[in-house]
Amino acid sequence: MKRLKERWGISSDWQLLVIFVVFGITGSSSVYVAKPFLSWIGMDLSNFSDAWWGQTLYWLLRIILIFPFYQLLLVVYGWLFGQFRFFWAFEKKMLERIGLKYLFNNKS
């Protein structure tokens, strides 16, 4: 745990515990939120074909939706738990690694 705290720039075990809790809640919440969101936009599982590709398309769409929900909820839960600065930096690093660095260009 010492190496992880050094890598993340964390000073206490309590802060590390809070960060782990936020990661856990965020993962569960993003999976949970994707289904009602699909229903809200009119894409229930019942609206897809009964063929194998209909269910596959539904689940693929749901999995793709989990990613943006995770990104958003990570920052929100981080803020609620008092760790906004850590999770904002974590979020920027993650998005930069997947090629979205242009979102955080500071040219001011």
Describe this entry's structure for a reader.
- The protein has one domain.
- 72% of the residues lie in helices and 0% in strands.
- The protein contains 4 helices and no strands.
- Helix 2 packs across helix 3 and helix 3 packs antiparallel against helix 4.
- The radius of gyration is 17 Å and the shape is elongated.
- It starts with a helix and ends in an 11-residue tail after the last helix.
- 7% of the residues are buried.
Tally of strands: 0
Low-pLDDT regions = none
Class by SSE composition? mainly alpha
The average pLDDT score comes to 86
Cα end-to-end separation: 38 Å
Keywords:
mainly alpha
SSE diagram, text form:
Elements: H1 2-8, H2 13-40, H3 52-80, H4 84-97
